[in-house]
């Protein structure tokens, strides 16, 4: 059984066109412990609920985006492009000028 995913660029497409990139997680800080890094790489929440996930439109526009998907029903309620938090963009030296 398949379901539709609405790519923010290409519109609704069959799920077979996409690659699942995993749930979103918080990356540990550069000075984080080895335990924090191992948790980030290997452990997932594995919820039976809504979660935000990375998806890649492999057979379409070849872009990564985020989707809010229910892990039991596969219902997609929203898809959107990733936008870093303003504080993260400022600390990375980003500028609109």
| Shape by Cα distribution | globular
Q: Element order, helices and strands?
A: EEEHEEEH
Mean of residue pLDDT values = 89
- State the distance separating the first and last CA atoms: 48 Å
- The helix content is 10-25%
Strand content: 25-35%
Explain what this protein looks like in three dimensions.
A four-stranded antiparallel sheet has the order 3-4-5-6, with no helix packed on it. It has a two-stranded antiparallel sheet with strand order 1-2. Strand 5 and strand 6 (76-80) form a beta hairpin. It is globular, with a radius of gyration of 16 Å. The N and C termini lie far apart (48 Å). It is α+β, with helices and mostly antiparallel strands. Helix content is 15%, strand content 33%. The chain has helices at 34-42, 86-91, and strands at residues 4-7, 11-14, 19-23, 50-56, 64-70, 76-80. It has one domain: Folate-binding superfamily (Folate-binding fold).
